[in-house]
Amino acid sequence: MLFWTLLGIVIVQRGVELAVARQNERWMRSRGAREFGRGHYKWIVLLHAGFFLFLMSEVALFGRAPAAWWPIPAIVFVLAQAGRIWALTSLGRYWNTKIIVLPEAELVRRGPYRWISHPNYVIVALEIIAIPLLFQAWITCALFTTLNAWLLLKVRIPEEERALAWAQNKEGSPT
Known about the structure:
The chain is mainly alpha-helical. The protein has helices at residues 2-29, 38-62, 71-91, 119-134, 138-169, and strands at 34-36, 99-101. The longest helix has 32 residues, at 138-169.
């Protein structure tokens, strides 16, 4: 019951985030924003959908239950949620699930962005570790931590850095 409740909350949260992202996208595009990384966005969506499906399958098929040490990943998860809210509110209307930038817009350097270039990716990585560990879903944790790290470090973050450089200096071009 706890698993399905937590999973439901996280899935609803993601749905709300997608709705906010769509609103922010419309607002930014109406001001001349450009999108980068269209080609890999489907892989981001697939990774996240696959994470939830794989997690549900592992917990259901193998009868996974909360670990005796569940408070540790639970605390990490709660702190990640606080970090997520901080990161998203710091970006305001500039936050999106896609890489969308406004030419010559001021780079956000408030909130967690004072110290970390991509705090939301750190938060997502923590969630991809903490949620499966809460329920001893070791396979989901290992597989999706690895896939997420590869996708972020090799594809997403380099593309986002290119987009930010373009927005600041008009270097490169949107893809």
